[in-house]
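Database export, one record per block. Field names are fixed; values are copied verbatim from the stored entry.
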Amino acid sequence: MELFLNFLASGLVIGSIYGLIAIGFAVIFKTTGVLNFAQGEVMMLVAYVSWSLATELDLPLVLLIPLVVVAAAAIGALLERIFIRPMLGEPVFAIIMVTIGLAVTLRSVIVLIWGADAAAFDVPLKGGLIEIGPVVLFTEQLFAIVLFLVVALAIFLFFRFTRIGTAMRATAQDETTALLMGVDVKRISMLAWAIAAVVSGLAGIAFAMMISRAPDMWFLGLRAFPATILGGLDAPLGSGLGGLLIGVIGDLSEGYIGQGLKEISGFVVIIVILMVRPYGLFGQRELERV
């Protein structure tokens, strides 16, 4: 039982990272109908910028996080304005191809600016151990779980109770009607990219604190993508829960069955789930009248 609980806790830790990135995927898709295949690279860019801020300014975590939120929002908004805004009205496939090109570009830019070597993300939070019954976690691992819970709650409250969140949901339902009601769709698109950059960027910080910041961090976006599919592309909170499920299933399968299953178990799960629920566990079924 003790081994199972530790595998479960480890899965929740990495699942929290996947869940945050998956929320970023879902926020953009829910609002604009576009899959941002550069989400992992945006996460990595925010993590690198955060590392530079922490290193150069020697900021404690409590001051670093608000500064990172502002920087990440600016990065997301800038990327949307430069790369996505000119593509409005173009086929969705063309926009997706732009995000793939953006992903490759960001990987190269990061290596060009920061180099190809990994480096520790040292903050005062790093290094402590916390025992919860038979489960032992590092402080930064517990921070990742708490961060996921706080962000998931904030996203729920934002979409449910704020005017901007309501406008974003209205745009997702029917862009034309939202335009007729006076909603600034361009502003909503920029805001979606900003929110997604903040959420996934916080995931990058949490991961870098646990492991390191490295130019292969973008691969977390690929690992988190099954969580978005599992939870539902149009369900940010569902995608977050999908991340937890993918993380737990990955660690349990590798722990009890064999090494190497962590990377593929998520894709196996979505194949099975999509055969039963093509719109994901929490996604909405689209009905078309003929």
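Remark 1: The two ends are 54 Å apart (CA to CA).
Remark 2: The mean pLDDT is 86.
End of record.
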